[in-house]
Amino acid sequence: RFPNIASIEMAEHVGLKNFQVYLNKVKNLLTDDGSFLMQVAGLRQGSNWQDLAWGLFMSRYIFPGADASTPLNWYIRQLEYAGFEVQSVETIGRHYSHTLHGWYDNFEKNKSKMEGKYG
Questions:
Q1: How far is CA 68 from the centre of its chain?
Q2: What is the pLDDT of residues 8-41, one digit of tens each?
Q3: Given 30, 42, 68, 108, which residue has the most CB atoms within 10 angstroms?
């Protein structure tokens, strides 16, 4: 068993259907006083065109076949249901969106080079 476990962008790939199975596995791998850090990409509660565009972009380019459209409150409920005590929450959406925008711009600038090299 481990005193600390970090899950970075894993939850989206686990998906909604298997999320409790995943959390129970993490809980069983932790020592009794262990800490679990989970970082996820999701959407704000409610929809607007920016969130829809974000979700479609994430589903197509970042997490194909995964679910990155789940709001924060769903994750918190799932963690508590699995027996975790949520001690701290921080949203970094504005910062992360700038990172993704930079990745996208770099991709578009180098698209022809990548196609030439990789097909």
A1: 6
A2: 888 888 888 899 999 999 999 999 999 999 988 7
A3: 42
pTM of the predicted structure, to 2 decimals:
0.71
For 74, residues 6+ apart whose C-beta sits below 8 A from its C-beta are 42
CA dist list (Å): 17 to 27, 87, 93:
18, 25, 24
3-state SS, the chain, equals CEEEEEEECCHHHHCCCCHHHHHHHHHHHEEEEEEEEEECCCECCCCCHHHHHHHHHHHHHHCCCCCCCCEHHHHHHHHHHCCCCCCCCCCCHHHHHHHHHHHHHHHHHHHHHHHHHHC
State the sign of the Cα–Cα–Cα–Cα dihedral 111, 96, 15, 54: negative
